[in-house]
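re: ur msg from earlier - yeah i can do the zinc ion complex, just paste it... oh wait u already did. ok heres what im feeding in:
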Amino acid sequence: MKLKIIGSGGCVSIPRPCCSCKVCVEARKKGFPYARCGCSLYIEDENILIDTPEDINYALNNASVNNVDSILWSHTDPDHIMGIRVLEQLRMDWLGYSVGKSNENPVEIISLPEIIEELHELKTDKGSMLDYYKYRGLVQIIGTGYIEKEKLTINLIPVGAGKNVAIFVIRQNDKKVIYAPCDVKPFPDNPIFKNADLLIIGNTIIGDVLKEGFVLKADNPLTKELFVMDEIIELKERCNIPKIIITHLEEDWGKSYDDYRELEKTFNGIYFAYDGMEICM
Ligand SMILES: [Zn+2]
Ligand SMILES: [Zn+2]
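and the outut:
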């Protein structure tokens, strides 16, 4: 299985526009991997992209991705869907249309039915964006909780009362990887997550001292919504997972690429993502 983290940034990617904090200044100067696009994952075996933050074109180019056959969405928060126009960049052929040709290779849009329903609410003057892309022949829409491809399978496990957030369980032969980028606290107690080879997870605050010396107190409301590192260690033990990669790294955490390299030395089997990070299993 070949995975590539093509966007490791959070709701606010790095460098944040107009920001003069040291992390953003360094990222502006040095580029990737100090810079981070919004959170997304590419599964190279089957040309599958998970999530489309607004800078997804930039992320795809940076990671030298040369084909996308399917797009899966984890949920419909803006930081995961606002790059949906990538569908036009991938398949729109105005010159072909002008001489009567139609697109023969639609991108498969796959997600939980609840998420597809929410995506249909994204509208412009032409109505639902997804319906417009379907009308143009750019997409084929599939609402499902299970995907079987030639080289791997993916289960989409719903999280939360609305069942409108997905955790992905990607399997190939005897390897199992879990991708849980956002909005996954509390982490569901489901045996499918046990004994995975790797968990890639977002939704985590890194450290007690954040951007520009902000001290995170235990009662800060962010700690209700997001995991803290002790909870990630506990989750690793509870699910018996040897390796965790933390992604969706917010600019607010105030840490640079080098800071994360140093920090991961203090943990056992816990690493921090960067744009272009390749995972082969
Ligand atoms: Zn900044
Ligand atoms: Zn998010």
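cool cool. The longest strand covers residues 165-172. ping me if u need the other ligands too
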